[in-house]
């Protein structure tokens, strides 16, 4: 069987198992706090808003938000609201779930540069949001048709939102 693809070359299941090391029972135990920026970002998602922080130095809007700009090292205190629309910067076809299980149907995963009213992005150092893309096919990725495509967030109904990135089901392609 050759359902896995790496660099365009099909892999047999036994070859795939040598690349992905399966962990039977991991012993990792940890607690993690979302922190100030991510907590506010996740609270915004629960309300149906996408929030970011604006750097006063390089003028980049960071989505997801950061407390310090990784490019000019300034402290970020200005919050901005992004649109739930944007464009696909890059995308890949994923044959595996986040838990490394084989997916019945491959998913398209991409980096989305969201529109932020009043802000232009001229730098190659753009922040983006990694998420599922729906309404696109494997062929759209392979032919690069998906790149620069417009997308819009498909939100869960308000009563089902929990303050998680999965409150956005996916970004749906708006084919023009």
Supply Rg: 18 Å
Q: Percentage of helical residues?
A: 10-25%
Q: Unreliable runs, pLDDT <50, ≥5 residues? A: 1-6
Strand order of the largest sheet: 6-7-8-10-9
How many separate structural domains? 1
Largest sheet: 5 strands, mixed, barrel
Roughly how many Å apart are the termini?
37 Å
Q: Count all strands and give the number.
A: 10
| Shape by Cα distribution | globular
* Class from helix and strand fractions: alpha+beta
Tell me the fraction of residues in β-strands, as a range. 25-35%
Structural features, described:
- There is one protein chain.
- This protein has one domain (33-173).
- Helices cover 14% and strands 35% of the residues.
- It has 176 residues and is α+β, with helices and mostly antiparallel strands.
- The strands form 3 sheets. Strands 6-7-8-10-9 form a 5-stranded mixed β-barrel.
- The protein is globular and about 50 Å long.
Quick rundown:
The chain contains three helices and ten strands. The chain is an alpha+beta fold.
Topology, element by element:
Blueprint (H helix, E strand, L loop, with lengths): L3 E3 L2 E3 L1 H7 L15 H13 L2 E5 L6 E2 L15 E5 L2 E12 L5 E13 L14 E6 L3 H5 L7 E6 L12 E6 L3
Parallel strand pairs: 8-10
Antiparallel strand pairs: 1-2, 3-4, 3-5, 6-7, 6-9, 7-8, 9-10
Using brief descriptors, characterize the structure shown.
176 residues, alpha+beta, disordered N terminus
């Amino acid at each position: 069987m050759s359902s896995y693809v790496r660099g365009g070359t099909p892999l047999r299941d036994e070859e795939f198992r040598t690349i992905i090391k399966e962990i039977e029972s991991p012993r990792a135990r940890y607690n993690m706090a979302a922190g100030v920026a991510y907590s506010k970002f996740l609270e915004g998602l629960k309300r149906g808003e996408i929030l970011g922080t604006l750097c006063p130095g390089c003028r980049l809007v960071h989505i997801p938000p950061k407390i310090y700009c990784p490019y000019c090292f300034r402290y970020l205190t200005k919050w901005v609201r992004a649109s739930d629309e944007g464009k696909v910067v890059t995308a890949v076809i994923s044959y595996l779930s986040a838990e490394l299980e084989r997916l019945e149907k491959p998913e398209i995963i991409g980096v989305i540069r969201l529109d932020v009213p009043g802000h232009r992005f001229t730098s190659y150092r753009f922040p983006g949001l990694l998420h599922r893309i729906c309404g696109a096919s494997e062929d759209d990725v392979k032919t690069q048709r998906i790149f620069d495509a417009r997308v819009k967030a498909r939100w869960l109904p308000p009563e089902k939102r929990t303050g998680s990135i999965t409150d956005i089901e996916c970004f749906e392609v708006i084919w023009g």
